[in-house]
C-alpha cells in the first residue's frame, strides 16, 4: 500500500514527465518555425542563405534528413577479402561495421553492443573471423550479427533477442552502399540507369592502388556545388581543362567522332541527368585530342580496366547524392567519398583503383596514377575552403547562379525537396 510520501513522489514524477514532454513539443515547434523561416528566405536561382552553410542546427538536420535517409557510399569489397574482414564508417554520432560473412556476403551493423551500448570495434579495420567481441563485457557476435556468447546472464536470458542492429546494404559492382533508413529509397534506378554503363569498367575486378583522406574546411553543400559546375574550371583547374572536352573549349568534330566510334563498339554514350527528384547521374566525356586518360600528360598510367580494348575511352563518371563520385578512364578509376563532420568541415576520402592483375612498380607507378586527381582535388579543396571563409563573413549575401551553374540549381532543388518531404 502506498503511503503519503509515495503518492507525492508519484505525482511529482508524472508532473515532471508532462513538463519534459511539453519541453520537447515546444522545442519541436520552435525548430519548425525556424526551419520554415529559413526556407522562406531562399531566392530561387541564387546561392543559399548563410545559415545553410554555417549553422550547426541546420547541419544536424542535414545529417538526419539527408545523410541518414539516403544511400551512402562507404567503400569497396576489395577491402574485405576474407571472412571476418571488416572496416568501420563514422558519420555524425554513428559508427557502422561493414563485414564479410562466411557466405561471402557483405553485412553492415551499428557498432553498438546490444548489452549496454559500448562500441564493439575500436579499430577502423581488422578481422573477426570467429566473433566480433565487445571489449566491455566480452559479448561475442558472429559476422552475421548474431549474439553467440553472453556470460553470466541467467537461465531465462534469450540470446536471439540481442542480435546486432542491422543496416541496409547494397553491393553494386564491388561498390558498397549503406542506408541507415529502415525504409531506404529504391536502389533500382542505379541498376536500371547506371549499371549498363558501369559494367565495362570492371569495378569488381580491381585492386586499390592508393587511398588518401583530406580534411576540407567547408560545408558539404559547398563542395557538392563545386562539383556540379565547371564555371570555375578555367581559372581553377588548368590540368583538367587541358584534358577533358567541354570544360573550357569544345571541338564538336572530335566529340562526334569519338561518340560515334564508341557507339559502334556497343557502348552507351548518352548521359543520365540529375533532376530535382533524382539522386543519381552518369556520363561519358571525351578527352581532348592527344589525351587518352586522366593523367598530367594524357598518357596511360596502368593496364586497361575491365572490358576495355582501347586506350581512348574518355572518362566515365558517376555521381550520387549525397556523398559519392566515381571517375574512370580506360586504365584507372577513382572514388570520392564525402563525409560531413560539422557545418564547416567535411572529410573527403579519395581511392584510386587499377586492374586487379596489375603489378606495382612494373605495370604502374602509384605517384603517376594519383597525380591528376590529387592535383585537381587539392585545387578543389582550396577553392571550397576559400568559399567557406567568405561565406562565414558578415558581408556574405546569396549571389545569383550563372548560365554554367544550371546543375547547381538542380542540386539545390533536390536538397530543398528532401527538407520539404519531411515538413522542414
| SS class | alpha+beta
The first-level CATH class of the largest domain is given as: Alpha Beta
Strand order of the largest sheet: 11-16-15-14-13-12
At the fourth level of CATH, the homologous superfamily of the largest domain is Naphthalene 1,2-dioxygenase Alpha Subunit, Chain A, domain 1
Mean pLDDT: 92
**Number of self-contained structural domains:** 2
Strand content: 15-25%
Give your account of this protein's structure:
- The model has no long low-confidence stretch (mean pLDDT 92).
- The protein has ten helices and 16 strands.
- The two termini are 49 Å apart.
- Helix content is 32%, strand content 22%.
- The chain has helices at residues 4-40, 51-54, 56-67, 188-198, 220-227, 233-236, 238-243, 252-264, 366-391, 406-420, and strands spanning 72-76, 85-91, 94-100, 106-110, 125-127, 132-133, 140-141, 147-149, 168-172, 175-179, 206-216, 280-285, 315-320, 324-328, 333-342, 345-355.
- The protein has 424 residues and is α+β, with helices and mostly antiparallel strands.
- The protein is globular.
- The strands form four sheets. The protein has a six-stranded antiparallel beta sheet with strand order 11-16-15-14-13-12, sandwiched between helices. Strands 4-3-2-5 form a four-stranded antiparallel beta sheet, with no helix packed on it.
Amino acid at each position: 500500500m502506498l503511503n503519503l510520501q509515495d503518492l507525492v513522489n508519484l505525482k511529482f514524477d508524472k508532473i515532471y514527465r508532462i513538463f519534459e514532454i511539453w519541453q520537447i513539443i515546444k522545442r519541436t515547434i520552435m525548430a519548425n518555425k525556424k526551419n520554415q523561416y529559413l526556407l522562406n528566405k531562399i531566392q530561387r536561382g541564387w546561392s543559399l542563405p548563410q545559415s545553410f552553410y554555417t549553422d550547426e542546427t541546420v547541419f544536424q538536420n542535414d545529417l538526419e534528413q539527408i545523410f541518414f535517409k539516403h544511400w551512402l557510399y562507404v567503400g569497396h569489397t576489395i577491402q574485405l577479402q576474407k571472412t571476418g574482414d571488416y572496416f568501420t564508417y563514422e558519420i555524425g554520432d554513428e559508427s557502422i561495421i561493414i563485414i564479410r560473412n562466411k557466405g561471402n556476403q557483405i553485412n553492415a551493423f551499428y557498432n553498438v553492443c546490444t548489452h549496454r551500448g559500448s562500441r564493439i570495434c575500436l579499430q577502423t579495420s581488422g578481422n573477426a573471423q570467429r566473433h566480433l567481441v565487445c571489449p566491455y563485457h566480452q559479448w561475442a557476435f558472429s559476422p552475421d550479427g548474431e549474439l553467440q556468447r553472453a556470460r553470466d546472464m541467467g537461465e531465462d536470458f534469450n540470446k536471439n533477442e540481442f542480435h546486432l542492429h542491422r543496416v541496409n546494404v547494397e553491393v553494386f559492382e564491388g561498390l558498397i552502399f549503406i542506408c541507415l533508413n529502415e525504409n531506404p529509397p529504391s536502389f533500382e534506378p542505379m541498376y536500371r540507369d547506371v549499371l549498363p554503363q558501369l559494367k565495362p569498367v570492371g569495378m569488381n575486378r580491381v585492386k586499390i592502388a592508393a587511398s588518401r583522406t583530406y580534411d576540407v574546411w567547408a560545408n558539404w553543400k559547398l563542395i557538392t556545388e563545386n562539383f556540379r559546375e565547371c564555371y570555375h574550371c578555367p581559372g581553377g583547374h588548368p590540368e583538367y581543362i587541358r584534358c577533358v572536352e567541354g570544360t573550357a573549349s569544345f571541338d564538336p568534330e572530335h566529340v562526334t567522332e569519338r561518340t560515334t566510334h564508341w557507339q559502334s563498339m556497343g557502348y552507351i554514350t548518352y548521359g543520365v541527368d540529375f533532376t530535382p527528384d533524382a539522386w543519381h547521374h552518369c556520363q561519358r566525356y571525351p578527352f581532348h585530342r592527344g589525351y587518352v586518360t586522366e593523367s598530367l600528360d594524357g598518357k596511360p598510367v596502368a593496364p586497361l580496366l575491365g572490358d576495355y580494348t582501347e586506350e581512348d575511352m574518355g572518362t566515365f563518371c558517376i555521381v550520387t547524392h549525397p556523398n559519392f563520385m566515381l571517375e574512370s578512364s580506360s586504365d584507372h578509376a577513382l572514388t570520392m567519398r564525402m563525409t560531413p563532420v560539422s557545418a564547416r568541415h567535411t572529410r573527403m576520402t579519395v581511392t584510386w583503383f587499377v586492374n586487379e592483375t596489375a603489378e606495382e612498380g612494373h605495370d604502374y607507378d602509384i605517384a603517376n596514377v594519383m597525380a591528376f586527381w590529387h592535383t585537381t582535388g587539392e585545387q578543389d579543396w582550396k577553392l571550397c575552403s576559400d568559399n567557406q571563409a567568405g561565406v562565414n563573413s558578415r558581408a556574405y549575401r546569396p549571389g545569383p547562379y550563372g548560365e554554367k551553374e544550371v546543375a547547381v540549381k538542380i542540386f539545390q532543388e533536390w536538397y530543398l525537396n528532401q527538407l520539404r518531404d519531411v515538413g522542414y
